[in-house]
Amino acid sequence: MNTVLSDKKAICFFVIPTILIYIAVIFLPIVMSINYSMLKWDGIGKGTFIGFGNYIELFSDSRFLNSVVHSFLFAFVSIFIQLPISLLFALILANGVKGEKFFRTVYFIPVIMSTVVIGQLWSKIYNADYGLLNTFLKAIGLGSLARDWLGREDTALIASFIPILWQYVGYHMLIMYSGAKSISADIYEAAKIDGASAIKTAFKITIPLMKPVLKVSVMFSLIGSLKVFDLIYVLTKGGPFFSTEVPSTYMYTIIFDSYRYGYGSAIAVFIVVECLVLTVLFDKLIKV
Amino acid sequence: MDGVKSRSNNINRRGKKHRVRIGNIVLMIFLSLYALIQIYPLVWLILFSFKNNTEIFGGNVAGLPKVWRWSNYESAIRQANVLLYLRNSVIVTAATIFFVIMLASMAAFAIGRMKWKLSNTTYILIALGMMVPIHAALLPLFIVMKNLNLLNTFWALIIPYTAFGLPVAVSIFVSFMKSIPRELDEAAAIEGCNIYQIYYKVILPLLRPAIATVAIFTFISSWNELMFAITFINKKPFKTLPVGIMSMVGTYVTKWGEIGAGLVIATIPTIIVYLLLSDQVQKSIIAGAIKG
Amino acid sequence: MKRAERKRFMLALVAVIIMSLVFTSCSSSEDVKTEDNGEKKEPIRLTIWHQSVGDADPTSKLITEAINEWNEAHPDIIVEEDGVTGEQYKTRIKTALAAGEGPDLCYMWGGSFVQPYIEAGKLLPIDEYVDDTVLSKLIEGTINGCTYNGKIYSLPMYTFIASLYCNTELFEKAGAKIPSTYDELVDAVKKLRAAGITPVVLGEKDRWPGMYWYDIMAMRQAGSDETKAALKDPSKFNSPDFIEAARKLQELVDLGAFNENMFSMSFDEMVTAFANGEAAMIYQGNWIQAAVEDPESPTKGKVVAKPFPVFTDGKGTVTEFYGGAVDGFYINATTPHPKEAAEFLIFLSEKLGKGGYLAGAGLPCWNTEGLDTSNLNPLTVQTADLMKTATSFITWWDNILPAEASEIHKNLVAELLAKKLTPEEFCQQMSQVEGSTLPLN
Asked: A165-169, B147-151, B273-277: lowest mean pLDDT where?
């Protein structure tokens, strides 16, 4: 058996096409970015080699360090608030309720909407003058809480997280749902015969069996948070006063507004390395 | 097999009918409320697509449009070259989904089920694709595509979309393969299947729910992608739908209602594909459960 | 069995190869055709990239018309256009030029946007193609914005100036006078606020609209010459006039001149809010006129364009204008057909310059004698008349200062508006930025 499963030729056959595409689209650009990150370069003329100068600057750039903190905060919120919500819905739906299919379909809708739509929608929800949120607060007598959610440093960060968290609940739910559904029905039967309650079944049987899928979800969520860009850029452009800036929005500004291709590439390399290190750590720490 | 029936039967037998009913009602209300929140953006987009700037940026955020401006749709269809760009988007997305599923399932098979030293390293390296911030990859990738002579072809989009779709797909496939019992491979091998047959005849059919899931995710990301589509393509015959819609965003004045109409047009195929594939997820799971 | 399985994989591979052939043949079919048609002489093909797209942009239609006209008249020089909207255009053109894969002609913003490309030799000087007959058709001085190191790189089309647009209806309602001095501005702000009207709308999420306010106030306070000197040598920003301008801006903030949600408001929302009559004033370029003059706009016909109020204690005069930027088309230094590209550039710039003015896209850089201006909208006429009084222009500071310095400048103005900085701190930090090397004339 083992000889069949470690057939070198077959392994090559299965993996090489993927590796080839990877070399062209992922590795080569990363290598080129590492090269750029050693340059002082405006992306136009010739760059000058400055070694690790950009990296040294990076770690004393408070705007950059803050953006990293924001992305970690976001990863934390995603993993500990968004994923449990997704898991709850996945379990309820996988457990079989009336309209399972309907709910599963509807919960996924925000994921398929384009960022432009989600961005426009939430900027209307948050709008200080006529936004739904402030209108609602005033209607229930909490008018004093109404504020310019995206325009204030103290609320902008959390206000820009919420739409992303909300949008991707359905994404993780679908992964977890198919994970839960792929658990053999026999196991549930057995649990039922033993008289286990639904909650007990979930914690003792379903969730442990879903570990590989949950691990994937956490990994997606972690990496997704560390390189989040789209919605933050649409909603706040990293403002006001960099209070919602994350590494990738900062990188975009540096490369395309400040013409600092070298420094921007250093941020890009940082993001890749950061994700890689955390993924490996996560993989080593949590064995499934 | 059907969870609802067997569970409620079970509980009925114990005579807890009443409590369960209230619990169910509360649950349904909760689920429905959340459904309302999730479906809201779609409803909002449709209403938005009939408004003009005055209404969109004025007081009428959530309400019905004062006048239903079908002209927004006429204008969007004309400006966004909907038919041509739709066709291009379909070609690019279909090819991407095909390649992602083929390549990712093969790679995942080697990683998840075969035994070799670099298996885990390869897995992590593939995950690397998720970690690249695309705005930084733009210039390097542009240079790569230029040197491969692929700019202004569909390949300039299909190849990067496939590469960026692979990590997610491989992860999902690998995690699913872990839930397929190893004995299956052994049994197949004893019956005389070679490794390719194990992949093709044994594992691939069992992956069906995962394939549908991967197809959905790949579809969404490549259907809506804008950055590469704008940078790598500058000839009309190869432009995709998001580029068409963005071409309605004026430099100084933008008619948002028309953009909304374009977005509705672009979203409809997404919903159709999602409904089809999502059904497939469900069906293949049930089919798999009966067999297994 | 083994073979059969392999066969299937082979089949899949073959399918992939066929697909790839189909796609690549799609992509090259166009070239094949031209070879067939032009057996004797193959036409020269020029590509042009621009940022004018969408129905709302008057330039978009003009470019297509001009190109069609050119292609009909010159079957041997075929021009192909490709437009992508603003923000995405910047990303694309920067990426393509960095990779050495730009089009033959491309739209570029003037000043510090295009300057690094010129210095790196990426763009072609066109002096040898531009003769006096062309230059004589230009309004005097407008060629300066296209000249770098004594060489002409582009021709102007039309230009923009910033003006204070005032909603007369709201001013009447509040019993306020349209301001022509700073004191009157303060007075108007107070009266408008008292009447419950937002005096000025500002979309500071995009940061450049706020910059316009500080920049014009600095010009009014310090005067044109002192401002130009400071832009070249920013250490001069740390001086009483620039501090006083910052102080006045914060005074306006304290009086509640601006909308409270300015930091979350985008440019789009700002313009729409003004066009909807939600604020009495906006200080912006001509490009906002399209929204105000739109047939559906509630403020159509109720808005007047005025020069920014003068400061009685300032050195600036009412004839000094913020604006006058010259954006235009530039030729890629690597184009195989520089002569044809230059001819087309001259043709296109004149077409767009005249047509764009008539369509309300901007103010003229070409002589407009003999053009039928009776259909111009009133705001275009007003701003064109204002421009005729101009004695000097200073264009958008983010087109003057180098890229990174202008980013810093915009961020500092935002912090000034939020009162996170004192006027002194603001000027102290402004004095640290890199100065402009552009000739400011």
From this structure: B273-277
